[in-house]
Amino acid sequence: MDTSRTSPVEGIPAWEARQAEGATGLADRLAELTRRLLEIDDIERAAAVLGWDQMTYMPQGGNQGRGEQLATLASLAHERLVSPEFGDALKAFAEEAQDAPEDDVRHAFLRTVQRAYDQATKLPQELVARQMRLTTEAYESWVAARAAKDFSVFAPAFAKMVDLSREIAEALGYREEPYDALLDLSEPGMTTKAAADLLGELKASLVPLVQAIAEHKDRVDRGILYGHFADETQWRLGLEAITAFGFDFSRGRQDRSIHPFTTSFGVGDVRITTRIIEDTFASAFFSTLHEGGHGLYEQGLPAEWARTPLGQAISSGVHESQSRLWENLVGRSRPFWRYFLPKAQAAFPSQFGHVSVEDMYRAVNYVEPSLIRVDADEVTYNLHIAVRFEVERALMRGEIAARDVPEAWRAKMQEYLGVVPPDDLVGALQDIHWTGGLGGFIGYTVGNVVSAQIWAAAGQAIGDLPERIAQGDFAPLLAFLRRELHQLGSRETTDGFLRKATGQGLTTRPYLAYIQGKFGELYGI
Ligand code: ZN
Question: 354: CA distance to ligand 1 center in Å?
Answer without folding.
Answer: 32
